[in-house]
Amino acid sequence: MKRLFRALLISMLISTAALAQSDPLPSWNEGPVKQSIIQFVHAVTTPGTDFVPPADRIATFDNDGTLWAEKPLIQGLFAIFRVHRMVARNPALKNQQPYKAVIEKDKGYFEKAGLKEIIHLFNLTHSGMTSTAFAEEVQLFFNTVKHPTLRTSLYQAIYKPQLELLNYLRANGFKTFICSGGTVDFMRVVSDTLYGIPAEQVIGSELKYKYVDSAGVNDIMRLPGMTTFNDKQEKPVNIQFHIGKRPILACGNEGGAGDVYMLRFSQGSPYKSLQLIVNHDDAAREFEYGEKDNKSLNMAKQYYWQVISMKNDWNTVFP
Amino acid sequence: MKRLFRALLISMLISTAALAQSDPLPSWNEGPVKQSIIQFVHAVTTPGTDFVPPADRIATFDNDGTLWAEKPLIQGLFAIFRVHRMVARNPALKNQQPYKAVIEKDKGYFEKAGLKEIIHLFNLTHSGMTSTAFAEEVQLFFNTVKHPTLRTSLYQAIYKPQLELLNYLRANGFKTFICSGGTVDFMRVVSDTLYGIPAEQVIGSELKYKYVDSAGVNDIMRLPGMTTFNDKQEKPVNIQFHIGKRPILACGNEGGAGDVYMLRFSQGSPYKSLQLIVNHDDAAREFEYGEKDNKSLNMAKQYYWQVISMKNDWNTVFP
Q1: Quick check: A207 and A106 in contact, CB under 8 A?
Q2: Is the dihedral of CA B110, B113, B116, B122 positive or negative?
Q3: pLDDT, tens digit (0-9, with 9 covering 90-100), for A56-90
Q4: Candidate from B185, B200, B218 with C-beta closest to A268
Q5: Which SS3 state, helix, strand or coil, does residue A252 take?
Q6: How confident is the model at residue A16 (pLDDT cuts 50, 70, 90)?
Q7: Complex ipTM > 0.90
Q8: Is residue A244 within 8 angstroms of chain B, CB to CB?
């Protein structure tokens, strides 16, 4: 009797383990989106008409609102962090704009001054230093600043279901890339820790760089001004430049219609491909927001992309 | 007796195999350069003070004159190939410059017209088509055109010792990249076949791109004009943009001093690093050429880079 009980217990443990193992996406609810992902991965990895050689299993993910929360933009928090660091080092700055407005949380100033002043703030906080110094600032930011609304570490502001998806894809021979509007040297400081995506697989916006090798400096200087703003039609352009292959899986989010061309580019692959778009419809656990013209969701309908409802498709949002 | 002979033969075969296996660089002659490579790889992969985590084992190689022969420039041969293709499709072009000069092998025309006309020819032959069409042209070129002086397939114009080095590095956990002045979409069509380097690990010069998704076209259009000419100080800039890590091994060649800043950037790594520069000193088996000011070799001396003498360090040049 005791032996039977033990045998039963063991077999139960084994089947639970097997079940856990058989579901690579435990934070995803059963439904058409999860099914489409699993069917797609099965199709492209199984010998047959839809098989894709491992070298061409490229997956690209947007970052803001797709892999981590974007309300507020985490890189915006970094700009504020930088202002405080710069003012601490040089207190006179706190009487100068745009530092003053940041320190005093004077949103009206930026509303009045417009985009030009926001770009100016971006340049002030992101340039004028070496790449090495910038990476140190970014690391310090992630290690000290908390998310203002989620009240967690920034390392916890990422979507758990997406982490599972990234791991699932990699376990099936995919090479996973970030392709985001955030600047590349900002994201790549933490991309490996957060998502298991190495620095060289991060595509993003970037400032002007200049190589300096003189007077004891051997580094890339970060200059004001952008060389590329990796959004909308620039995403396929930078994917071509960096990867040179169309992603067979592309995942973005609705909110600013920044990802629709990356998804269209993916859809032009000669291979079977899958396009996913995260819908921010979960006011309770994350946020609820959309586009005025509903462009992303309209295109999703037109082109048969899978829309991920955070509310319905994810049983867990944050880790 | 027969048995003894058989046993001896087997043991000889085994030890020959073991010997072959123990030398990862059989086309390299014994000497300080080969020793420096093997000692370096051993140091960075062995637990201890010089150990480098696999994720940071980045190696970058120039292409023209470093991985394949650059007399003449293979991408120049492609421009000529393209002119012939364009004229075949539209015979009227053969009476127009610069097509006429190419067809008639009129070098004087380009010497007189100068760099501007060469850039114009480059744009005419490399732009005005989709990335997909361009890749097909490049593939056709490599499959049909022979090397004019080596009299071999272009696939044979690569340096065998460098192939061994690339394989040796990868076997030791390195990620190998091309970082060359050639345009990225030209090299990456063959980089995997030639060197085992996937498209996404090729850094190069590039034209302007524009993403088009209309009228049945869903592709990257190649426009005239360069976004980056990946040479000299631009190499560290593009390494930073694409990889975001300093290479711990960088290999270039003397001839145009195009690689010295890539090597300096590598040398600025906080890790132990190795810089290599190919010296074209082998008129018999390849070519003999140098720089008027000897900049690369002077810097090699100043900064303790290893100079690879094709004549002395390589027992075989081409496969």
Answers
A1: no
A2: negative
A3: 999 999 999 999 999 999 999 999 999 999 999 99
A4: B218
A5: strand
A6: low
A7: yes
A8: yes
Residues of B in contact with A55 (CB under 8 A): 192, 198
DSSP three-state, residue A61:
strand
Across chain B, the runs of DSSP E, i.e. the strands, are 58-61, 129-130, 175-183, 202-214, 217-228, 249-253, 274-279, 306-309
On whether residue A185 sits in a domain, the answer given is: yes
> How far apart (Å, rounded) are the C-alpha atoms in residues B19 and A67?
50
CB A86 within 8 A of CB A42: no
In a domain, A188, yes or no: yes
Query: Are A202 and B58 an interchain contact pair (Cβ–Cβ within 8 Å)?
Result: no
**What is the extent of the structural domain holding A39?**
26-70+157-313
Query: Strands, DSSP E only, in chain A?
Result: 58-61, 129-130, 175-183, 202-214, 217-228, 249-253, 274-279, 306-309
Q: Could you tell me if A220 and B236 are in contact, meaning their C-beta atoms sit under 8 angstroms apart?
A: yes
CB atoms within 10 A of CB B31: 12
B55/A contact by beta carbon, under 8 A: yes
C-alpha to C-alpha distance for A207 and A185, rounded to whole angstroms: 9
CA dist., res. A31 & res. A69, Å (int): 23
B237 touches chain A (CB under 8 A): yes
| Residue A126 falls inside a structural domain | no
Alpha carbons B211 and A134: distance in angstroms, whole number? 31
CA-nearest of A205, A239, A243, A237 to A222 is A205
Average pLDDT, chain B: 94
Query: What's the CATH number where A172 sits?
Result: 3.40.50.1000
Of B199, B236, B245, the CB nearest to A200: B245
Is residue B185 within 8 A of residue B135, CB to CB? The reply is yes
Q: What distance lies between CA B144 and its chain's CA centroid? A: 20
A50 touching chain B per CB within 8 A:
no
Domains identified in chain A, total number: 1
Q: What does the pLDDT look like over A162-212, one tens digit per residue?
A: 999 999 999 999 999 999 999 999 999 999 999 999 999 999 999 999 999
Q: Would B50 be classed as within a structural domain?
A: yes
pLDDT at residue B3 tops 90:
no
CB B91: neighbour CB atoms within 10 A?
9
Instruction: Quote the Cα angle for B237-B242-B246, to 5°.
Output: 65
